[in-house]
Amino acid sequence: MPKIGLALALLCVSSSALAATPQAYSWGRPGASREAFDGGSRACMLQAARRDVAGDEATKRYVRGAAVLDRESNVAPIVPTDDTFDISTRQMLLRRAYAPDRQVDALQSQLQSEVDRCLVQSGYVRFALTREQTRTLRRYRPGSEQRKAYLYTLGSDARIVTAQKVAD
């Protein structure tokens, strides 16, 4: 019974952490034409997306961990008397030790930082979205022309970008 209580407590804590949504933001370049606005941001994203990440430390750690976890999943139990609980405990400990999810998160964070630096160097400014702007943005499907047009309208308006600029 105590194990169930602990599991429920952990689930509640993780659920409440997910419920706190971070401040939404966007990037702006006041006065830019739509073509320049879209082209500059696309160039920054493509630069990061096309970069070979094979030599990055997070990628190497992920590959090592994935190999160990794959090997563990595909071999017979080390001790013939191991039951399902022993096997799953060993797999959980290996997953924690190699933390493949954290390696992917670290690599994604690194790539996002590269995109952010490129945007700043290209004259873009990061600005926070108000609740109303965030609500409006949610009405548009990601990648849709309406969403892109709305973000351009916000990001090209010098008053909005200046008033809502995020200090880095």
What's the SSE blueprint?
Blueprint: H1 2-19, E1 25-28, H2 34-49, H3 57-73, H4 84-98, H5 100-121, E2 125-128, H6 131-138, H7 145-155, H8 158-163
Antiparallel strand pairs: 1-2
- Give the tally of β-strands: 2
Overall geometry: elongated
Would you tell me the structural class of the helices and strands?
Answer: mainly alpha
Number of helices: 8
Largest sheet descriptor: 2 strands, antiparallel
Instruction: Sketch the topology as an H/E string, one letter per element.
Output: HEHHHHEHHH
> Percentage of helical residues?
55-70%
| Major beta sheet, strand line-up | 1-2
**Poorly predicted ranges:** 1-19
Percent strand:
under 5%
Q: Mind telling me the C-alpha Rg?
A: 22 Å
Oligomer: single chain
Structure description:
- With 168 residues, the protein is mostly helical.
- The protein contains 8 helices and 2 strands; from the N terminus they run αβααααβααα.
- The chain has helices spanning 2-19, 34-49, 57-73, 84-98, 100-121, 131-138, 145-155, 158-163; strands spanning 25-28, 125-128.
- A two-stranded antiparallel sheet has the order 1-2.
- 9% of the residues are buried.
Provide a compact summary of the structure:
This protein is mainly alpha-helical and 168 residues long.
Question: Which terms summarize this structure?
Answer:
168 residues, mainly alpha, two-stranded antiparallel ribbon
